[in-house]
Amino acid sequence: MNPRHRAAPARARTGGTRGSIRTRMAVILAVPTAALVALVLAATLAQVRAAERAATVADDVELALAAQELIHSVQRERGLTSGFMGGATDYRPRVIAQRAASDRARTALDRLLARRDARVVRDGLAGFDGLGELRGSVDAGHASRTAVLDRYTAAIARLNTALRGLATSDDPQLARGLDALRTLGDAKEHMALERGHLNGVFAVGRFTAADYRRFTEVRARKLDALERFRAVATPVRRDALDAALRTGAASTAAALEERALEGAAGRRLGVSPPQWWAAMTTVVDDLRTVQLGIGADVRHRAADLRAAARVRQAVYGAGALLVLVVAILLWLYTARSIVRPLRTLAAEARDVAERTLPAAVEAVQSGERAGPVEPSRLLTRRDEFAEVAGALDAVRRTAVELASEQAVLRRNSAESLANLGHRNQNLVRRQLGFITTLERDETDPGALANLFELDHLATRMRRNAESLLVLAGRHAPRRWSGPIPIGDVLRSAFAEVEEYRRVTLRRTDDAYLAGTAAAEVAHLLAELVENALTFSPPDREVEVQARLADGEYHIAIVDQGVGMDPEALAAANERLRGEGGHLVESARRLGHHVVGRLAARLGVRVWLHDSPLTGVTARVVLPASLLVEERAAEPVPEPVPAGAPPERPVGPVVTPVTTTRNGLVKRTPAAPRRPVRPERAVPPRDPAEVRSVLETFRSGVHRARSADPENEETSP
Amino acid sequence: MNDDPDPILRPFIVTGGRTHPVDQRLRVETLVSAAPAALAAPLGFERRRIVELCRLPVSVAEIARGVGVPVGVARVLVADLLAERLVTIHASVTDTPNVTRELLERIRDGVRAL
């Protein structure tokens, strides 16, 4: 649960894959979507082409109808010319009028061709180019009627043939319309031919054999074309044709035709050419009307096809767009439905790592039971996410259980440590008490030195035992009710380190520490001094200064070691602030953890910094709350016996001493060690003086022996 | 747990571990008195208390009691002060060669009278 190990890499991973699922799903959807859109686009293009084709057909039909108009006019011209050349001179003005009509039709067709060029039609028109010359020879009267008619007919036939080369259509209805248009064109041509031919024959009055043969041939062709038209035309147009052939004019024409058929033997026909012409012209005009109707049909059909193609084109385009939109919506929805629960899962997992698990561990450490793991919100789903959530829940539960077990284990081991530390401390305390008793009566310096060695060892053992208690979260059992001078606290701290002889107390301001905190402050200082001694060369001393400032007590422990690099210094200060657990750190740093715990408990500020020249200085600030103003009762016993003569004046000048020197004699550089020169004994005293001396001795010994047990606490 | 445990100061730290006094003459009963200049001298901790106690002649044993240290420690401290001429010792009775029979008898009488 170290905060440094979690979150950071996990966050980075989440950030890196945020768009990845969406991208992948987009790729999956993109391929079929693109294929679909391409298909629809192809269909749309096909419709565009169909519409174009329909438009072409419509244009061609326009062209064909215009050409038919020309043909229609020239057919009349031919018929009139034929009658004129047969001898009906009264036709002449009509021939001239009809020539003008033909020229107008030609101009109209040329205009149309100028807009939409069709080579086949232009080629077909070649026959009409010699029309002027033909008309000239007719007017001059030196051309044979048959040859003139043939030239007209050839020109018309050529155009009619050319018209077959115009656009056709895939649409059956349209194709049939076009076919009907052409067939009717043929029928009308032959009917017009018959009209023109018979016009001439009737004008002559009788058939020659050749004329008759030609007449029957043309008539057969006409009937054949009409038959073919009936086969391909729509019922409506068929009925229209039938209606055109049943009119009065048609019956007259049919009757006259019968008469002509009977004139095969060359007898006189006796038919008025104008009557024939009028009747036949009406029929041909009616056919022309039918032809125009079919043209309209074809035009409509083409327009319909074009409109249908346009509609389909629009529908397909809309379809493509719809497919695209649906694909995108699908993608968004699916991505959301995957990404959302994934995020929820990630958030829940992170919540466990950052909140639930530490909370559970904390609860267990403070002696409560860990709360139950709340199940994931995703469990209500019925999909794979629920399975993953379930698996994660299992991980969470196991983690919380493990953490709880660990916490219980830690608490139990801490209790065991505390228990052992307590027993140890108790034994050492008794040992020290016994050593104190032995030291008190020991007068032999050698034996006392041994006792001191024992004393020092036991003191250090006591510190170790108390360190154990501190790490287990217990208080040191040593507490005094009265205030303790800080000088004593400092020196007792030195007594707890191994090489106390290397410690120099440079300066101490007088102050008193609350007795309840004295042992723990001494312990804290001892750990810091021990550390300073460990990290300085064995020939260098560690200096300690203590100063009272602004109501707080400042202590500096200065070593002259190699110092620490900034990172180690920062880590050490972190430990001194009580951060981090001693169980996860190296055992070498235990001292710092002990200091951190004690400092936090006492409200003492402790930190390390670089010494001015070399080494490290440990700074300790005891807050005002730990300091006590003055001793409750001045416990200095006045050793002045009752009967002492005041012959020696009591020194009146007792200046308040601020101790600026080391308390240890050995360390006082100002103290010169000279060989002691025994002074000469004072001259013989008088008995009163001797008695007084003895009295003092006696009372002193007496007090020393008897006052031993109860006066103990008054001695500092 | 005792209300007040042992004194916080271990005796060996008072002398810095030394047990041999620099002056061998000091005995438990040797009387010590401070030199007049000693009270003004800058002394620390136990040494100051010894000088204060010795404004009147006091025995080494009494000093040990008053300061709260073992006699062995008191002897080392007093010997240091003696070497620095901050205290003086009074010649002990047993040291004096001219103890007369008369004096001894008077002592005997005095002791009896106690």
Largest sheet entry of chain B = 3 strands, antiparallel
Choose one word for the global shape of chain B. Answer: globular
Helical content of chain A stands at 55-70%
What would you call the quaternary organization? heterodimer
Poorly predicted ranges of chain A = 1-17, 632-682, 709-716
Number of domains of chain B: 1
CATH architecture call of chain B: Orthogonal Bundle
Rg of chain A over CA atoms, rounded to whole Å, is 67 Å
Organism (chain B): Actinomadura rayongensis
Pfam families (chain B): DUF742 (PF05331)
Protein name (chain B): DUF742 domain-containing protein
InterPro entries (chain B): DUF742
Molecular structure report:
The complex is a heterodimer of chains A (716) and B (114). Chain A is built from 18 helices and eight strands. Among the domains of chain A are: 23-321, no CATH class; 486-628, 2-Layer Sandwich (Heat Shock Protein 90), CATH 3.30.565.10. In chain A, the strands form two sheets. Chain A has a five-stranded mixed beta sheet. Chain A is mainly α and 716 residues long. The model of chain A is unreliable at 1-17, 632-682 and 709-716 (pLDDT under 50). With 114 residues, chain B is mostly helical. The N and C termini of chain B lie far apart (42 Å). At the A-B interface, α12, α13, α14, α15 and α18 of A face α1, β1, α2, β2 and α3 of B.
